[in-house]
Fold this protein.
Amino acid sequence: MRHPEIPQGIFKPKPTASETKQDATTRAARQITNGEAAARDQKTERLRLARLASEATKANTAPTQKRTIKPKHV
């Protein structure tokens, strides 16, 4: 889940020192989660493409016939 960046000073004209620290913490946390989400999306796309390529190669190869075991006549 990605959150848009919060513009500085949108809620209050002059933030206090503690609010500035909170904004910095929020921004850092969102950057981390957005980075993790982007990495997860890239990995998902890479794995999906690998799966599709694997399925395509399996579909293109002809299935080998299984050897049937002939019953022994006694």
User: Anything to note?
Assistant: Residues 47 and 53 are 10 Å apart (CA to CA).
